[in-house]
Amino acid sequence: MDIFKVGVVGGGAMGSGLAALIARKGVPVVVKEILPELAEQAQERIYGKFKGWCDRGKISESQLNQFRAMVSVTYRWEDCKDVDLLIEAVSEKMDVKKKVFSDADKFLPPHVVFASNTSALSISEMAESVSDARKPQVVGLHFFNPPTQMPLVELIATA
């Protein structure tokens, strides 16, 4: 499966770090939050990461602008409809994660893979919140924190 665009749900520390990492790898990313003001805060966090890299000489000003152009933020599911991979990076609460997947399942095309960044919760239980057709496409993608500095990810399949 080719991944041309990634969606990240949750723009907190982990979600913004994932978005920055994905953009730095050359893949467009859309960050989904629940409110417009939270989307703005996520954008500021992500841009702050790019600026920090630029200030430390890790990327050029040109790269900073390229990466910024690869990131969009939203509070609407409709703006995520063209992603190939959706990574949830919300709080470590099963009910919250299941709601994200349930809501996303209603809006996103059938080919989209749903991934959870959980470190401990059951991926199989999360998969219960999506349609039967999507259940095999629910995986765990546990990035270690901070994702921009820890080149380690754990892949967890559903049962």
How would you explain this protein's 3D organization?
The structure is a single chain. The chain has 159 residues and is α/β, with parallel strands linked by helices. The protein has one domain: NAD(P)-binding Rossmann-like Domain (Rossmann fold, 3-Layer(aba) Sandwich). It has five helices and seven strands; from the N terminus they run E-H-E-H-H-E-E-H-E-H-E-E. It has a seven-stranded mixed β-sheet, with helices on both faces. The longest helix is centred in the N-terminal third of the chain and has 20 residues.
Describe the SSE topology.
Layout: E1 6-9, H1 13-24, E2 29-32, H2 36-55, H3 61-69, E3 71-74, E4 85-88, H4 94-107, E5 113-116, H5 123-127, E6 138-143, E7 153-156
Parallel strand pairs: 1-2, 1-4, 2-3, 4-5, 5-6
Antiparallel strand pairs: 6-7
Helix pairs in contact: 1-2, 2-3
Q: End-to-end span in angstroms?
A: 21 Å
- CATH fold type: Rossmann fold
Task: Order the strands across the largest sheet as they lie in space.
Answer: 3-2-1-4-5-6-7
One letter per element, helices H and strands E, the order comes to EHEHHEEHEHEE
Overall residue-averaged pLDDT value: 94
Structural class: alpha/beta
CATH architecture: 3-Layer(aba) Sandwich
The CATH fourth-level homologous superfamily: NAD(P)-binding Rossmann-like Domain
Number of strands: 7
User: Percent of residues in helical segments?
Assistant: 25-40%
Low-confidence stretches: none
Q: What can be said about the biggest beta sheet? A: 7 strands, mixed
Q: Which CATH class is shown?
A: Alpha Beta
Radius of gyration: 15 Å
Strand percentage, roughly? 15-25%
Count of folded domains: 1
Count of alpha/pi helices: 5
Shape: globular
